[in-house]
Write a structure and sequence with these properties.
seven-stranded mixed beta sheet; 2 domains; 346 residues; alpha/beta; 23% strand; Rossmann fold
């Protein structure tokens, strides 16, 4: 075990509920000597806003502490980002020993490569900010980045963990009856998802299919279903859902190919649109041909789903807490990728 280093946890304003749940999970995972007062709770912080819209953070004492900052994609994303930058600066100025950002969802995760002329690669640019040696940030945790090469933008490389086994575990324990399993197939939203989540079908002992897609001019168009889905219940996996247009389009194609039903499993439930209100978006998904949506709380979403029937939200708080604990104590994160270890964080 590493030498004892007291821990404090902070959060940007959009991540407070998840951060509190992570702290609760850490109370039983971290040795008491790492927890101030013997019980880790979310640290006090606040942001004073001035008439010119600038903000000023107020934090408690962090001198010689390891400070964990939970920051996920939430409403007013640019406000959240600047809160994160302000927190980091204040914590550095207050002589913290080390800072460890944790991203349940990494902002601008989809802006990960220059695939069009004259555009920014914002996920790389943000990583370069965190790479600034003056900030003292060496350890970072990212849950299911859109592409694993995002981890390599960081110096040292960020640690990636995945919630896909949580979704798979839920399917096995709570959803897949013997009758449903007999007529099910794992479907991936595209070849990339088929590669990232390839262990799912092996764990469930099911056949696979994927949706072939064409990408051009920033748009993605489904072309065909590769694999047999006829008279099958499709367990459709993807990493993110935004407006739901892709999920509905993929599901419609599967049903037209003869599928019996579609259960959509997704890690990051953004569920937002610039064109329609949230309520209308959720109703569109409720009225869609998708039988069930199973997603995580990596992004604040439960408040959008009150009164819905098709949505099941699984918390990633225990997974993130386990990853934080292992990073602090110098234990392996690779163990979290083993199906037999899901019980550590379900």
């Amino acid at each position: 075990m590493n030498s004892v280093q007291p821990i404090k946890v902070f959060s940007t304003s959009g991540s407070i509920e998840l951060a509190r749940n992570i702290c609760n999970a850490l109370q039983t995972r971290l040795p008491k000597e790492f927890q101030p007062g013997g019980c880790l709770t979310l640290s006090n912080s606040g942001f004073e806003k001035f008439d010119n819209e600038c903000i000023l953070p107020h934090i408690e004492n962090v001198r010689d502490h390891l400070v964990v900052i939970i920051s996920t994609h939430a409403s007013q994303i640019h406000t959240q980002l600047f809160e994160l930058f302000h927190l980091i600066d204040a914590i550095v100025n207050a002589d913290a020993k080390e800072i460890m950002p944790v991203f349940p969802y990494y902002e601008y995760s989809r802006s990960d490569k220059k695939d069009q002329p004259r555009i920014s690669v914002m996920s790389r640019f943000l990583a370069e900010i965190f790479n600034n040696s003056n900030l003292g940030i060496r350890k970072k945790i990212i849950l299911d980045p859109h592409n694993d090469h995002i981890l390599e933008y960081f110096r040292p490389t960020a640690n990636g963990i995945s919630a896909v086994l949580l979704l798979t575990d839920y399917l096995e324990r709570e959803f897949l009856t013997p009758e449903l399993r007999k007529n099910s197939v794992v479907v991936f939203s595209d070849p990339g998802a088929a590669y990232r989540y390839r262990e799912v079908a092996h764990i469930l002992n099911l056949s696979t299919a994927y949706i072939d897609k064409q990408r051009a001019g920033g748009k993605t168009t489904p072309i065909k279903v590769v694999g047999n889905v006829r008279k099958k219940n499709c367990l459709l996996f993807d990493d993110e859902i935004l407006t739901g247009g892709t999920a509905i389009g993929d599901s419609t194609m599967l049903l037209e190919a003869g599928a019996l039903s579609v259960i959509f499993l997704v890690i990051h439930g953004i569920l937002a649109s610039e064109k329609i209100p949230v309520g209308a978006l959720i109703k569109k998904l409720e009225d869609s041909p998708i039988s069930k949506f199973i997603l995580t709380d990596s992004v604040p979403v439960s408040h959008k789903l009150i009164g819905t029937n098709k949505f099941k939200v699984i918390s990633v708080a225990n997974l993130l807490a386990e990853a934080i604990k292992r990073t602090i104590l110098g234990e392996s994160l690779t163990q979290l990728y083993l199906p037999e270890n899901v019980s550590l964080y379900r």
